[in-house]
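User: Hey, quick favor. My workstation is busy. Could you predict this chain's structure for me?
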Amino acid sequence: MKIAPQDILTQQFGAKVKGFDKDEVKNFLIQVAETLESEIQEKENLRKNLEKVRQKLEKFEKREEILRDTLVSAQKFSAEIKTNSQKESELIIREAEMKSEEIVKSAIERQKDLKEEIRSLKFKRREIETDLVNMLNSLKELIESYQKEDEDFEKVEYLSGK
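Assistant: No problem, here it is.
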């Protein structure tokens, strides 16, 4: 059974012949009641403070949980970004390698085409050179034949006396 300070103050004791001094008992009971009242008040204040601290603790725990979740999410997001960046860089590298291979193949094909064109042009030049030499030889022969005819014509003229 709990005893309240008011119970102490209102407590009545029976009188006996050789009992305690009533005033001393009454004063002592008043001091006990005041002390008990003070202790109860302090206990209530401590309970209220404890409740406030628990509420703050609860808020901090919620904040901590939110921060932890945020940190985990940020770590996951960071990992995803890193993974995506690696995949994207690998894709870019593969595309660049493919393009470089295409450029090299195209350059090799162009080189082959140019070599073939150069061969063809050299062959045509030789044909033209040969044709020019033949034509010059023909012209030389023609000129020589004209010169021969002119000499023959001059001999005939000279012989004919005119």
